[in-house]
Design a protein that fits this description.
The protein has 335 residues and is α/β, with parallel strands linked by helices. The protein has a 10-stranded mixed beta sheet, with helices on both faces.
Length: 335
């Protein structure tokens, strides 16, 4: 493993093993990649989002030249080598601020870290309020990240980023870690944390924003057809190895967790009933993570906070201060 940490130097971190890609047959890899490119991970096919590589590269350059970013942040591009596959990463540090608190951001299916950090003022405000550095990355097959847009590769990439953030010798040496996952990023985060061993000297909290109970349930819900077609949709997701059982993983999680869900509320508040859960214009209430967790026994979600928010699926946060306070308090409980 190796890491270059000088302010303006490119970052490099190496991990020698991965469970994805090389174990798949050609046909399976082709099928899973096509499903990722055209259905589950549209960021790997920018044209479907009316984006061009030129626009993404322009945003990348702007991160390093924008005065409103550089007054608060020191930005460092990097590469994570995961079994020879290079993943694109952005490490941002609060300017003139020393902290061992890091936030690891897992993006939604149609997002690029370049545009999210450049234009996501709400995300930057939240990071500022939390006094945290941050790591953002593009999934395999997205932007300048190499590899295939398949589920297991996304999970492996997230696990690689955790290694980078946790590593006390060659990595970033975090003592507090905030995991933030939006939409499919919440599913990726859930799958990754299910296979991660938490370290006793690090305080953790997981934040999942407007995500689903399972990806197969979302696929079935999108058909809005006969029960047989719903069953086939579920089976297709599973047979392509794109299933993400976010609710199951959440209930097995041993660290504090905050779940943000679009709801019939005017301000951020605790979500305590199914009737308050709203359609966020992407994920229906009945297939949301919050819906599934509210149906679980309270004893199984005692370390979780469910928060109703007025924003739709991809809406910017409107109350970063309240969210930051909830995260701070949850970190305190994790110590």
């Amino acid at each position: 493993m190796a890491l270059v940490t000088e302010e303006e130097s490119p970052l490099f971190y190496q991990i020698d093993s991965s469970s994805s890609g090389h174990r798949l047959g050609r046909i399976s890899l082709w099928a899973q990649s096509k499903a990722g490119k055209y259905v589950f991970l549209p960021a790997s096919h920018p044209r479907s989002l009316n984006m061009t590589e030129k626009q993404i590269l322009s945003a990348r350059k702007s991160i390093h030249s924008s005065p409103h970013i550089h007054q608060d942040w020191v930005c460092q591009q990097g590469r994570i080598s995961l079994a020879g596959t290079l993943l694109d990463v952005l490490v941002v540090r609060k300017r003139n601020f020393d902290t061992k608190r890091w936030t690891l951001v897992a993006l939604g299916s149609g997002q690029f870290y370049e545009t999210k950090f450049l234009f996501g003022e709400d995300l930057r405000n939240l990071l500022n309020l939390l006094d945290t550095h941050a790591v953002l990355f593009n999934y395999p097959g997205v932007g300048l990240s190499q590899g295939f847009p398949i589920k297991q590769a996304m999970v492996d990439a997230h696990l690689a980023m955790i290694s980078l953030v946790e590593d006390q010798n060659r990595g970033l040496g975090a003592e507090e870690i905030i995991f933030y996952g939006h939409s499919i990023g919440g599913g990726v985060q859930a799958e990754a944390l299910l296979h991660h061993t938490f370290l006793p000297h690090i305080a953790y909290v997981a934040v999942k924003s407007r995500t689903f109970s399972s990806l197969s349930e979302v696929a079935a819900d999108k058909t809005r057809k006969h029960w047989l077609k719903k069953m086939l949709a579920k089976q297709t997701v599973r047979s392509l190895d794109w299933e993400m059982r976010t609710a199951r993983s959440s209930l097995l999680l041993s660290i504090p967790e905050i779940v943000l869900q679009t709801a019939f509320v005017r301000q951020y508040q605790e979500l305590d009933s199914l009737e308050k859960i709203a359609d966020d214009n992407v994920i229906s209430p009945q297939v949301s993570l919050a819906w599934s967790l509210l149906q679980a026994p309270k004893s199984r979600r005692k370390s979780k906070i469910l928060v109703g928010v007025p924003e739709n699926h991809n809406g910017d946060f409107t109350d970063e201060a309240t969210l930051a306070l909830l995260i701070q308090n949850s970190l305190g409980k994790a110590l």
